[in-house]
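Repro:
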Amino acid sequence: MTSAENPPSQPALEAVLRTIWEAFHPGQSAPLGWLTHTTTQVLSHLRPTHTSTPLTPGTARRPEALELFHRQVREALADAVCQEQLSIGVANTLLDVLDLPLLPRRWQVRLSLPLLIDVTATTREDAFTTAENTIEAALADLPTQIEWDGQDGYEAIGGDLDADEPLVHEGRSTTHT
């Protein structure tokens, strides 16, 4: 066979794992037995658990076998992450190299959203407090945590009298028109 007839070979699993380790831990040696253990774990999940008839040359593999292989690789890596034998970053890098879907992970996202809300208040500080309370109430049913970091960088522009809001005079309210 000529080199034109030989497709480039895929890197061995050990080489991929070494590359991944070096990418996430530059200059550090892997823990004793990590490469062997991880390779063994991945390969054990790749081997069929039941005996099947060997493929004869020219026989195409079933699509279900490939799907099973993909599922087993992802499950093996997910198990390794859960058992803290492997970080999720390393597992996802390996899945990316193998062109498989990445493992889902939890993310904490901090967003700064410019919100414009009209409130009625007597002072700038009261306006911020009222706006913050209104936003918290609107988002109360969402799995979020709101962190107010003071009023630096906030803007409050005073407007005209709110004629719809009753005036309060020493415990009595009066309506104005």
